[in-house]
Amino acid sequence: MTLKKIIGITALLLITIALSLFLRIIMKVDYSCSIPVEQVCNNEKSYFIADHLKNINKTNLLDSFPYTWYADSANRCNINSIKKDLAVLDSINPTGIGGDNQQLLSIALTNKLEEKIKPEFEKYNPDGLIKVLQWAEKFNYYSDIEEKNATLYQVTYTYWLTFISNKLSDYYKIDQSLKYNFKFKYLNARCKEKQFGAPINNSNTEKIINNLIENNWTYLFSRFWNDSDILIKLIGLIALLVVFIPYLIIYRIIKKNKQ
Amino acid sequence: MRYIYLISILLLTTSIVPYKNIIIPKYDAAYVEVSSVQYKNEQYNVICMKRKDEKIKVKYFAAADFNGNNVYKRYGNWSAGKNIVLVSSGTYMDNNYNPVGLAIDNGICVNKTLSNDFDGLVIVYATGGMVASNLKDGDLTVKGGNVDNNKKLDIRGSAWDFQTFIKWAQDQEATVFQTHLLVYKNGLKISGINSSVKTAERRFLAVCKDDSGNIIHVIVNRPDHTTLYEGAKNTLDFLNNYKDMEVIFMINLDTGYQDVFQFYNKDGTINSTIKGQKDLSTAINLLAYYFE
User: I need a labelling partner for A112 at 20 to 30 A (CA). Which of B25, B134, B187, B208 fits?
Assistant: First the structure.
């Protein structure tokens, strides 16, 4: 087999591998862009928090509050319902107005609620995260218009936006191609807009491209030379030859024809 | 002819005199010590900065400000007239040049996500001091403001405590960032099993205590390529056994995409013992040590 044929076959092989990798990413992308419609909160209140606080007084309120029941039953979609619950707590524990009572309800709306819904988010669940975002982001606005309970609202908002951002980061660690999905991009952009950025980093190829754009040639060479093993260096050399030898051949042909 | 002369002189003057941000760093050499050491067949380039008398201070720029001034510009404006000892790129960023994990710059929130990936939370006080906390321990304490100084905040475990902390940082104009906590209370916190196997030049910032109890901030540069784990482990050994220092905490300084580092001699000339590969103007975030 001549050198030209070897080079030709190697080049073909490299192009095929690159194309298959590219196609694999494209095939995996979820193009669905149907964002779940935001839920309209009803005013119904089918529970009475006071019934569950009968044996509770201000000394054991923090430890004895029925968090699990609250996470299951409360109408957390409706802000007026949450405010009424807080008013009941304030009547039981007047010394905790503006402090402990809000903290207690914040535990119910953050850590305890997360314990309840956690299984839904073990696998990539963009629709679920979008619903959480739609619910949680309202708390930021509530805190603007109601200073009295602003801390509770801000705590809830910050907690859930952090939850979404960290979930995106976790999903991304498992499958980097998720960043090409529309809903993932949507969630990531919304989180960034709210200053809850998730570290969706570049792949090694994207980092190389960025450095090429920025003309960081010495840096690229230094990283390649110091951080790659002998096999990668060899592949790099072959790739370099595949690119340059055809030019050399063309140059020689032109030179020969001129003579 | 006279006008031509005048204009020429004017042009010549403006071209040779920099119009702003003349950085002429000068500091008392008694507070800064630089050395290059071979220890167990490995090279360590070390800068020790003594915090005694609180003359050496720290300032951190986490991101561009809301007026569109990038970190380099902000640093340029701030550093005018200051005695800079060194300036370095700081913690990690994402591909949009945003800091990864919680970042508050001078009381302004840049990124509110408390990342689960980094256990180190570094607080740079407006007064020039710096402390770190291990988020896993949930025992962060803060100075000043309306927060009880003895209260232990568990900002990862309690949403309420996290909000309290953010409010405190805003009120105190503190600067906060999250990073890999490599060493804490003289114990290695990075594992060799699940850390990156990539090798690179390593640069660490260690806040240490010498045998007299004095706080010393140490920059350790490892030019040999090692993994983060190996680099951190060997540096801890070096600081403990060669420098006789107890490490309060040690964090990683980026030597990758934003490898910026500039160290000045006491007379203001550049010292090349440790030098980053990238220009200062490319910095996405900056950690500056200055003498006051």
Answer: B134
